[in-house]
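> call design_seq(struct)
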């Protein structure tokens, strides 16, 4: 079988959600299925330092597909021609877009429908594109994969998709996220947090991640506790980040907050493992990978009680209303003042985290591929 994959988010030194999902799942599938051939489609030059399996052919299909007009050209002109040229039996697209032209069966991975629930958090042009084309993509796909029961139910409810067409493949935390020793924690704190304990947030800086309310919550926490606790924010400046940057200029506790920008995954894994707790008050997530990454590092989690996050965190996290900074601050105070609670959350996280793995996700994607080809 010849399996074509949209790998346009495998961008060197800029891997995030879609990119990590693509790398972890499809590198694993290629390794585990050497009897099949994989064609990876990039929209720009790929990282030549990456070693692909012998059964992988990387192909660059310019131009870059990063805005609404280029989406249509890439998916409805370049992709159909490439699928025909490489005689693909199936096309897998992990980023929610597919081709409306090709007759090759497609597996479409839709992580969430955030654009419906929080339309103001994306640009007008992209929102219009999503609203117009998502129902067409869902109809065109032979099989739809998604990453949580929440997202599966949401797709069914919003677009009346038959349940038999959707597979929940889940997601996972990268294996590099592991606990560190006490000595390593001390070095990490000295390097990043002036030797102090710290809360950490992981994710791109854009409105949906709720950084402004996190900063307000941290102010309330500091006023109540008067501790030397720091807040570290690890993530690139994505879009509409100006408010966060402006807020930091006049922020009372700006000396206790560090914007670290985008970090390579090895550094990020150490930073998470060395933290006192993860605070992840995102408004909306299809899965919420940082929750699992923290639990895998034996780090307790405070997150939002919305969308998929309670499904993923189960009883191993504290939940707050993301619209209420006081509620987020209350959970930060609870975990800071109650060491027994913190220990309980860590132990519960050790039970939750192993339920998810990239092997499990890749096996379910393989199931989706076989289902699509059989149709």
């Amino acid at each position: 079988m010849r399996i074509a994959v949209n790998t346009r988010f495998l961008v060197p030194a800029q891997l995030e959600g879609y990119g990590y999902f693509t790398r972890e799942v499809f590198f694993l599938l290629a390794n585990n299925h050497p009897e099949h051939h994989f064609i990876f489609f990039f929209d720009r030059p790929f990282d030549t330092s990456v070693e692909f399996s012998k059964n992988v052919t990387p192909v660059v299909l310019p131009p870059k597909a990063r805005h609404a007009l280029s989406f249509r050209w890439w998916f409805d002109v370049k992709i159909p021609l490439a699928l025909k040229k490489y005689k693909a039996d199936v096309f897998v697209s992990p980023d929610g877009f597919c081709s409306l032209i090709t007759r090759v069966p497609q597996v479409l991975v839709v992580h969430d429908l955030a654009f419906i629930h929080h339309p103001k958090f994306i640009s007008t042009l992209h929102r219009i594109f999503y609203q117009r084309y998502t129902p067409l993509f869902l109809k065109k796909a032979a099989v739809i994969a998604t990453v949580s029961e929440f997202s599966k139910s949401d797709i069914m409810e919003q677009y009346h998709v038959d349940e038999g067409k959707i597979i929940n493949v889940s997601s996972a935390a990268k294996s590099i996220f592991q606990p560190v020793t006490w000595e390593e924690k001390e070095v990490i704190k000295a390097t990043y947090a002036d030797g102090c304990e710290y809360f950490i947030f992981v994710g791109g800086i854009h409105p949906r991640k709720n950084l402004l309310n996190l900063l307000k919550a941290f102010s309330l926490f500091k006023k109540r506790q008067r501790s030397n606790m720091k807040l570290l924010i690890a993530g690139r400046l994505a879009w509409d980040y100006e408010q966060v940057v402006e807020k930091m200029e006049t922020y009372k506790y700006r000396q206790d907050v560090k914007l670290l920008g985008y970090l390579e995954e090895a550094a990020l894994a150490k930073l998470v493992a060395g933290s006192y707790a993860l605070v992840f008050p995102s408004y909306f997530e299809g899965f919420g990978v940082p929750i699992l990454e923290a639990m895998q590092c034996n780090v307790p989690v405070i997150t939002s009680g919305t969308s998929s996050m309670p499904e993923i965190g189960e009883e191993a996290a504290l939940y707050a209303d993301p619209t209420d900074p006081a509620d987020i601050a209350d959970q930060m105070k609870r975990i800071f003042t109650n060491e027994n609670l913190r220990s309980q959350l860590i132990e519960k996280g050790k039970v939750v985290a192993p339920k998810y793995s990239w092997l499990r996700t890749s096996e379910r994607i393989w199931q989706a591929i076989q289902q699509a080809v059989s149709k």
